[in-house]
Automatic annotation (TrEMBL):
Start and end residues of each Solute-binding protein family 3/N-terminal domain: 35-259
The protein's name in its UniProt record: Transporter substrate-binding domain-containing protein
Keyword line: Signal
The organism of origin for this protein: Brucella gallinifaecis
Xref: Pfam families: SBP_bac_3 (PF00497)
Signal sequence extent: 1-24
Source superkingdom: Bacteria
Amino acid sequence: MLRKTTLTLLFCAAAGAFSFSASADTLANIKNRSSIKVGIDLGQAPFGMVNGEMKQVGSDVDTARLLAKDLGVELEVVSIAPANRIQFLMTGKVDVVIASFSITEERKKQVDFSYPYAVSQVVVATTKGQKLPTLESLAGKDIAVTRGSTNDTLITEALKEKNIEGARVVRYDDNASTTNAVISGQQDVYAVAASLLIPVNEANPNNQIESQFPLKVFPLAVGLRKNEPALKNWVNDWVMNNLKNGELNKIYQTYHGASLPDDLVAGKFDN
């Protein structure tokens, strides 16, 4: 009898949690508390980082600040890593994710995405002096990646598809650990966002990392929980307006030294 009662209570609790999740209006909650919790990866320069004055900076940080300002609320930054972006969204630890979050079909099964607001190019890079111009040249090499990142998925699938003999993906828990492994000489091949190489090379002039070849260009979007039409519509309108008025391109240029693709700035994308 006790077991039956316990199971009944657990079922009711689970059902209640599901009902709350399904009926939640995150946009209304954000406005009611006058703040928005944004998950940002502060170890992914130049998207997110902490500078010498211990201030949070980066293109994703500035994007989140602009979003909060236009929404009329305070910004609360929640530091996240690539491996827990989806978990933090689904468990309500953050309202949205702005963390170099690329749109993939696999991720769409769990979370929703806004229109793209920026892009990230994934490349295979090496320590200076090496020449690895193709995927096939990675045979017998170890490739460092950040666990759970798009880079991880992309290089793993590419190596498997081409059946590159002896290539091994070595995973680290965050971007700082992955970068340190390459800079310190533990690893010498790196699947990484091209924009990350800019601040890494500036900080390590004697240990330069060079891009060898591109893997793919990915659109980046704001991550949202599913079944949040009000918030998704607001964010989509906000992205479109700030692409067309140049604000998002200005942020991207500041940190990445390049402009967003013309099609993206014009609001031509398929999400």
